Amino acid sequence: MGLISFRKPDILSEMTWRVLGIYLFVSFGSFNFGFDLAWWSSCLGLQQFADDYGVSPGPGQANVIPAAWQSAGTGTPNAGMAIGCIVGGYCNAYIGRKMTIIVLAVVSIVGVVLQCAVPSYWAVIAGRTINGISMGMEANVIPTYSAELAPAAIRGSLVNFYQWWQIVGNIVSAGCIYGTSKTLSGHWQYKPVMIAQAGVPLILLCGVWFMPESPRWLLMKNRRSDAQTALASIRKGKSSPSEVYLELLVIESALEEQRSLAASTTYFDCFRGANLRRTLIAVLVQVMQQIQGNSFMNNYLVVFLQRIGIQNGLQIYLAQNATQLGGVTLSFYFTDKIGRRPLLIVSSFFMAVLMWTVAGLGAYTEIRGSSKAQGCVGAILIYQAIAAGCWGSCTWITTSEAAAAVVREKTIMTATFVSFCMVLLVTYINPFVQDPGYGDLGARVGFVYGGCSLLALAWAFFFLPELKGRSLEELDEMFARRIPTRKFGDYVSPTGTDDTKAQNIAAESEQVTK
């Protein structure tokens, strides 16, 4: 099988206004994720924020946020996200997808209130950490919920809304900070954006009641009638009642088969048998995204640009968010047209080249006020478009697809927990590696991240199978049969297509009834 396998995309034929509306809302929680990252990264480069929350390095010198404070302020909320992954995993399994969204929305509001109410740097960090718990829960429930509701042919496109809303949140937040910093004075240069964070959880609290629960979760809780009602609601306008019934039978049959293999599951089951391979895929795709510089670009780009002599860092940060949005928007089409695997392989190569370009221009040439600064910025913008459109989107799609049905919550919780631990590690270490007085690598830190992109390329080429266009139940079958990585694209289920499989199951059910 070739690296790239084109299939006719069924995006328009499978999409309905109802499905689109459900996914726009379900994935909206990730807007808060992007919003938080962008306002914090933008404020680190804002002098007014340093004046209000920082310290003076010496008599007559302007306040700064010390490197240790930056590490704590950027890294500690990631610890909250890691905790949120654990909390979200349990909530996801025991109270369902909808109730988990309600809980995370309440937690987010508490965090935002603390950030805004107490005029202290460490109170802001405490509030961001609480909000981070909410975002960790989001990272667990939203991809799971999205993957379980989506038709197989367009699952990649629909799960991609999770990443798309993150980038929209980035743009809105960075744009607001840029606007308020130019038009307002004092703490109002950044305070409106801090307050606005409460908007997302309030919208979720109001709208989640109208969303269907995951049919797969309902079936796992032996609520078959509710599952059929939920599935009929999701497929309304696209599938007939008999087609909904047949799809429900396929899901139910797959769940029963897996239950027979594991009557009661624990986290150890994620690392047993065929599940080990699936868990490693979910975990490592998250790790590979972070070690290529994702968290570095999200949290320290403005500060990095200032360190190498580019002063309009906030404008560039806003521009790179726009390029990210362009990349993610294109991935709605390409994730299901080309596939996840080739996008990750090819993008890693270009990300390595671009990161090394930034490092070389920033570290070994006089960049201040020169055309080389424009080249450095251009490389960053192209890098961000590629990273967001390929790794940003495909990471969450792959994580949600790789998990087996009976341990889906546990696998995704494990993967997202490890991911946020990696983010925590990078955000704590980066200032000490990059800043003067410590490691003083400056722009040369890009050589490290570029090398990690080559590692990610090798991993994706040798170990990541192509998962596009398969139902979650078909993926369960393929991993159980231990299909080799490069054979996934050519595999034909011995029981036939989903439609044939459903009809066979229905016929067997009728025979049993008779």
UniProtKB/TrEMBL annotation:
**TM region positions:** 20-40, 79-95, 102-125, 193-211, 343-365, 377-399, 411-429, 441-464
Location in the cell reads:
Membrane
* Membrane topology (UniProt): Multi-pass membrane protein
- Superkingdom as given in the UniProt entry: Eukaryota
Q: Which GO terms describe its cellular component?
A: membrane
Q: Which GO terms describe its molecular function?
A: carbohydrate:proton symporter activity
**Keyword Transmembrane helix annotated:** yes
Q: Which PROSITE patterns match?
A: MFS (PS50850), SUGAR_TRANSPORT_2 (PS00217)
| Keywords, sorted A to Z | Membrane, Transmembrane, Transmembrane helix, Transport
The Major facilitator superfamily (MFS) profile domain is annotated at 22-468
Xref: SUPFAM superfamilies: MFS general substrate transporter (SSF103473)
The Swiss-Prot or TrEMBL record describes its family as follows:
Belongs to the major facilitator superfamily. Sugar transporter (TC 2.A.1.1) family.
NCBIfam families for the chain: SP (TIGR00879)
Q: What is this protein called?
A: Major facilitator superfamily (MFS) profile domain-containing protein
Write down the species. Aspergillus puulaauensis
